[in-house]
Amino acid sequence: MTTIIEHVKPSDLKKDMNEMFREKFPHIKLTLSKIRSLKREMLRVAEECSLQPVTVAMAYVYFEKLVLQGQLNKQNRKLCSGACVLLAAKISSDLKKLEVQQLLDKLEERFRINRRELILFEFTVLVALEMALYLPESKVMPHYRRLIQKP
């Protein structure tokens, strides 16, 4: 017995997934691949700063809430993702001043954003999230499980 599976070019698969995502969420201005790319960058920054997986999971939840609200666009996507990491780190960790400085440095470097803009944008994100930074376990756990299962 044999089966034949048609080969699909990665670029075509990416295009199809982005199209399906756009059909399902027409109010979201970014593509699915761009959202995934931003989340990978968020993870890299968190790993470089030795943040816990639960902190990254919280940042992902904040980020996805903003995405679903239609708050992200091409101009503010990097500020949004950086602010989500910063807020999650502040709320879930006992960061010292030096560690916050290091995190800001990494966010500034990785996302190529201005530190002052990021700090100002942090409040905008906080308002968009309706000050609800403490998240129920049910929202954080799916992301957390996926993060700790990665090889």
UniProtKB/TrEMBL annotation:
Transcription regulation recorded as keyword: no
TM ranges: 118-135
Gene3D superfamilies (UniProt xref): Cyclin-like
This protein's record includes keyword Transport: no
Cyclin N-terminal domain segment(s): 38-132
Keyword annotations from UniProtKB, A to Z: Membrane, Transmembrane, Transmembrane helix
Entry protein name: CABL2 enzyme
Native species: Polyodon spathula
Organism taxonomic ancestry: Eukaryota, Metazoa, Chordata, Craniata, Vertebrata
Gene encoding the protein: Cables2_0
